[in-house]
Amino acid sequence: MGNLLIYSLIYIIILCPISINSDAVSDSKTIAKVEKKLSDYVLTILEHFKQKDPVGLPGAPIPDPMDIPPMTHSFSVGRMNMKNVKLYGLKKFRIDHMLVDLAAMQVEVRINIKKLHVFGNYTLSTWLSSSNGPFTVNLTNVFVKGIARLEVERGGHLEAQEMNMDINFKDISMNFERLGFLASVFQGVMNSVGTFVFDSIKPFLLTEVNTNVRKDVNKEVQKIPQKFPNSISPLDQLMAEARRKVRDMGYDPYKVDDYNQTVGLCTIFMTHTWITGLSSFHRVGNITVELQNSTFYINMEVGTQRLEGTSHWEVSLIGMLSRAGKIKFTVEYITVLVVVEQNVDVRKGPILDDIQIELGNIQVRFDGAGTVDYLIEFGVNILPNLLRYQIMDALESPIKSRIQETLDRVNMEQVIHQNLPKLDEQQAKGFQGFL
């Protein structure tokens, strides 16, 4: 499961922002060449995010400059034609915020481009005269928002869907050379030209990005041979595989550490406590990866179905008098919320940001006949709370410490370097058995 997560993270880095831009190949020399590009790109990305202010993404399939089709703008007293129009600056973007919903296979992203420049040539024809020359339109503080989704198509393969995008700007300025006296005569009219240029470019830009990115993403995801059922999401299918691994590793049923607590003159012992059903875990809500302020926040919450267990109890009064017995109990559910943060500069290690464990209602019943009043009172008022403490102590501290110890030992940069050959091996196999 650990290798799967590492492969998946690396593959997401490659898949989302770029296309390998290579057709399917069969000969070993070409495959080796493609593999080398794949590994080299990951290394390039790692170096890119080591910068204090990373701008853009190396190799992103964004034309810069982008050629814009000829445009025509009609006034009440004339017409302006624009041609040889080019848009500069698309690659110089910064990711302000990104939210990846793994359950919905959806990505929401907000990027900022400090400046965009439009260059071209115009011809202005009016009833008075005509003029022509170069023009420039400058857009400042451009914001782009987009939502992209992957869905399982009929054949069971993943497919990128239509993207929902929008683009806006804060300020605009322009300069049309050689207007002559028309610059002052039509000043009010000319003030609307800049907005017209943007409004004309916007649908073309959104269509081009939508079409090209969808094409590139689908080109890559189609290489994944894994088929997914339409009834459950790919993430839930991976959770089902994880449940099987938990059972194979012997964690269901799970033996809880022995526990004792002193209440007044009594000492209560809880021993041989077993819980069955931990492998029934499933995701609770969405599992998300959020990028904010150059830091990834991985938010994951899983919960179990109803658990059943047994335990031996013993009550000792000043070490002299004692009563003992066996109980069966049920736990309505257990949920675990984990938030881990990882800086985009992978030289900095991951950090456990938060962990919360919640136990549902616990019900206890005695195994066997002896249901005298004091046992009933003991079982109803004391044992559920003791079991809660015992289970929480058995789960919360070990989970926290083990997660943090694991994170402290992780050198993310080294882990990625070590797994690049395995990623290349998977690519050479066409990602057979990748998931």
From TrEMBL:
PANTHER family for this protein: FI04421P, PROTEIN TAKEOUT-LIKE PROTEIN
Pfam families (alphabetical): Grp7_allergen (PF16984), JHBP (PF06585)
Protein name (record): Uncharacterized protein LOC108738193 isoform X1
Annotated InterPro entries: Haemolymph_juvenile_hormone-bd, Mite_allergen_7_sf, Mite_allergen_group-7, To_sf
The organism's place on the tree of life at top rank: Eukaryota
Keyword Ion transport found: no
Signal peptide per UniProt: 1-24
Taxonomic source organism: Agrilus planipennis (Emerald ash borer)
Gene (name only): LOC108738193
Keyword set, alphabetical order: Signal
